[in-house]
Amino acid sequence: LKLPFTPDEQLTRCMRLRFQSLQQKNLRPQDGEKLLQPNEQVYRVDFSRQHNLHFLRWDIQLDRPGKVTVTGTSQHWTPDLTHLMNRQLLEPVGIFWKKPGTEELECNEADARELGERVAELAQVRKVMYFLLAFTEGLEPARLRASIVF
């Protein structure tokens, strides 16, 4: 079962508006609130099946060099956009990168596997799961295709 990461444009926009609103009003975020950085975007995975999922692998494709950090969240967002708190970010994160001049994608295997296994556990109680993807070293969201395989 291969489930794609889908950009959640509306949630990303709402989180960016929260950041802008705080800046414009010269206010500080709530204690422990995670604000979306300019290089981050919210993605979602919709689980068509929730039970008996066993993580097999990540299917991450970068069509240029760069790095993407995949952070899962335990947050179940509601339409009123409950603020994301740092304590709701899952550990470990999955870090995937492609070096210039190579076709091979690299990652920290142990962390990526543990994150995948946590996602499989959370899928049992979630129909949707949200992720923060941070793009660095020149990588952009348009250059990524990502799925999780069970």
Report on the structure:
With 150 residues, the protein is of the alpha+beta class. The protein has a single domain (2-149), classed as Sandwich (Jelly Rolls). Helix content is 21%, strand content 32%. It is built from 2 helices and 9 strands, in the order ββαβββββαββ. The strands form 2 sheets. A 6-stranded antiparallel beta sheet has the order 2-3-8-5-6-7. The protein has a 3-stranded antiparallel beta sheet with strand order 1-9-4, with helices on one face. It comes from Eubucco bourcierii. InterPro entries: Olfactory_marker (IPR009103), Olfactory_marker_sf (IPR036727). One of its GO terms (cellular component) is axon. One of its GO terms (biological process) is signal transduction. This is OMP protein.
Secondary-structure blueprint:
Blueprint: E1 2-4, E2 6-7, H1 9-24, E3 40-46, E4 57-62, E5 66-72, E6 94-98, E7 105-107, H2 109-123, E8 128-136, E9 144-149
Antiparallel strand pairs: 1-9, 2-3, 3-8, 4-9, 5-6, 5-8, 6-7
Short key terms for the protein model shown above:
150 residues, alpha+beta, Jelly Rolls, six-stranded antiparallel β-sheet, three-stranded antiparallel β-sheet, 2 helices, Olfactory_marker, OMP protein, Olfactory_marker_sf
What are the segments in which pLDDT stays under 50 over at least 5 consecutive residues? none
Radius of gyration: 16 Å
What quaternary form is this? single chain
Structurally, how many domains make up the residues?
A: 1
The CATH topology annotation reads as: Jelly Rolls
| Helix and strand run | EEHEEEEEHEE
DSSP E strands, number: 9
CATH architecture: Sandwich
Broad shape: globular
